[in-house]
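Entry 14: structure prediction run for Heparinase. Input pasted below.
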Amino acid sequence: MTHTLLTKPLLCRCSKSAIICFLLLTVFLSSARAKDSANDIFSLLNLDYPGLEQVKALHKAGEEDKAAQALLDYYHHRKGIVNPAIDLNNLSISKREQKWADEALEHTFYVHDGYQPSFNYGKDINWQYWPVQDNELRWQLHRHKWFTPMGKAYRISKDEKYAKEWASQYLDWIKKNPLVTVNQEEYEIASAGEVKGTAENVRFAWRPLETSHRLQDQIHQFTLFVSSPSFTPEFLTQFLINYHRHADHILHNYSKAGNHLLFEAQRMLYAGTFFPEFKEAAAWRKSGIDLLNREIKKQVYEDGGQFELDPHYHLACIEIFDKALQMADANGFRQEFPQSFIDTVERMIVFYMNISYPDYLNPCFSDSKKDNKQHVLAHYRNWTKMYPENEQIRNFATEGKEGKLPANLSQGYLKSGFFTFRNGWKQDATVMVVKAGPKGEWHCQPDNGTFELWFNGKNLFPDSGSYVYAGDDEVMKLRNWFRQTAVHNTLTLDNKNLETTESVTKLWKPEGNVQILVTENPGYKGLKHRRSIFFVDRQYFVIVDEAIGTATGNINLHYQLCDGKVDITPENLSLTSDFEGNSQVKLQCFANKGTVLKEEEGWFSTAYRQRTKRVALSFNTDKKDKETVRFITVIYPAKDKKDFPDIKARIKNADQEQKSMEIEVTINGSKQLLNYQL
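Run finished. Output C-alpha cells:
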C-alpha cells in the first residue's frame, strides 16, 4: 500500500475521522516496515563484533529503532577500517564529476562516454529506459557512476540536496530492480532481445560485474554520505540489507573467467574488509583473496601478459590487483597475498611499459581504447609506491626525472605473443608493436600478425579498435566490422576472418643492426601465414609474408594507415604519405606478377562509438595450387617526404623446407642482404 494509490476524489468522499484513521494506519505500517527492516539487518550482523555492544543490548530489548540509531552512531565514530580510495581530509571534485552530480539532480545520468550528452531518465526514474539497443548503455546505467560524484559534491559543498537526492535515487533503484533468479548464462548474452520480462531487467541490473561495481562504489558513497542528516537510521538499515544482498549474489554467481571474475573478486575483498560487521564478511574477503590468488596464476602468463591479449584490459587487471594490495596494506592483511602474487603484478607493469609508446599510451589492439597520459601517469605513481625499488617504474612515474630507463630497447614476450621493435624511448623514437600470440579470450580479435607503428610522435598504422561491444543487430554489425581480420595489418584468404589464432614464434632476435621476428599462424584449413619482420639499421622495416599450404583462393595482404593524405601508385604497388607534421611513411610491396592493389574502406576507433576515416588498402593475388605465395613489403618512415628512398626488393633464396630465407633489399642503389636460419 502506498500514498499514490489514494486519489484525491476518494479523499473527498471520506469522512474526516476516516482520513485520520487511514493516515495513522499508514504511519503504523511504515513504522512496522522500518522495524522489519531493522530486524532483518540485525539478523545479518555479528552483534558480538567489538563496538556493537549497545546495538546488541537494544536489539535484545526489542528497541529496534534505538538499536538502528546506535548502529548509525557506531558508524559515525568507527575507527580502524580504512577506505584507501577516499581521503576526506583531501577531497576534490573535477569539473566533469561536478557536472555529473548536478545533472543527476534532474535525473540526467552519466552512463557512458560513448553516449553524450547524457540521457534523462524521467521524473519518475525509468531504470529500464534503453534509448539505443547497446547492451553497454543498459548495463552501465546500473553502475551508478554519478553517485560517488554526488557524494563528493555533498561533502565539499555541504549542500544537503545532493545527499537527499542520492538517498532517494538509491531507494528508488532498490524498489524498481528486485533481484529474482535467472540462469547464470543469461547475464552474458551478447545480443539484445533474447531474454524478456523481469529476467531481462535482472540480467542488466544484477549482472555480477555491475553488482560488483556497485559493491565497490557504495563503500565510497557510504564514506561520503554517512554523516548527512539524510542518512537516517531507517536508511542505514535499507542500505546494509541491500549491500548484503549484493555480496551474497556475487558469492553465488561469480563470472566463470576473465577480467569480470577478477573485478568481482577484488570487490568482494573490499566488501568483506570495509563491512566486517556482517556475519559473512570474513567469507566474502576470503573468497575474493582466494580467487585473486588462484586467477593470477591462470590469467597471467609467465612473461607478464594477461590472457585476454588486450592492452586496455591488461592495464585494468593491473589496477584490480593493485587495488586489492592497497586495501590489504591499508587494513593490515598484505601477508594473505604471497610474494609470487606481488612479483607477477610487477611483471605485468614491466610488460605494459614495454608495449607502450613514448606518450605512455598502449596500442589499441582488440577492444583497447586510447587512454590519456595523465591517467596512465597516475597509475605509475601508484605503482612506484608499491614497488619503490623498481627504477624503471620510478622513471616512468617521474617522467624521467628519477630512476632509470629500461636497459633494453626491443623486447619480446613469446608466450603472450607481443613483440616490440624499438630504437629509443623518447618522442622521436621508432616503435613497432606486433601482436602474434595464442588464442585470446573474448576481448581478443582474430588479428594474428598485425602491428602498429609509431614514428616521431605519430602512430602511422593504428589498429582498427573495436568501436562498440554488443547489442541488437545494428550494434553487432558495427562491432563485427571492426573485429574482422581484413581491417588489420595482416594477411587473409578470400578476405575471410581467421579460423585459427594460434601463432607460434619461430625466431626472435631483438639485438643488432638487423633485428628479426618470424612468426607463424595456421589461420585457415590448408593455409598457414608466416610473417618475417626485419628491423633494419633501427630505421626501417622489411616484412615478408608467406601464404603456405594446399589451400587455394585469393590471398589478401592488408595495410591500414592513419588519417591524412596518402598518395597511392597502383602500378608499382606503393604509397607515400603527405601527413601534417614530421612523421611520414613510404610503403612499397613486391609480389608476384598480377598482384593488384585495391583501396578498401578504412576506419579506426580509439574510443567507444568514435571512429576516424583513414586510408586502407590490400595487395591481392591468386593462389591456384600448393605453391607458396610471397609478398615483400618495405615500410620506410621519414621526417620529410624528400627523404623517401628509391626501393627495390626480391626473394633471393627461399628454402623449400621453410628453414631459411634470404632477401635482397636495395635502398637508393645500396644493396643489403637480410636472412635467417631456423
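Notes: Residues 411-677 form a domain with the Beta-galactosidase; Chain A, domain 5 fold (CATH 2.70.98.70). Will compare against the previous run tomorrow.
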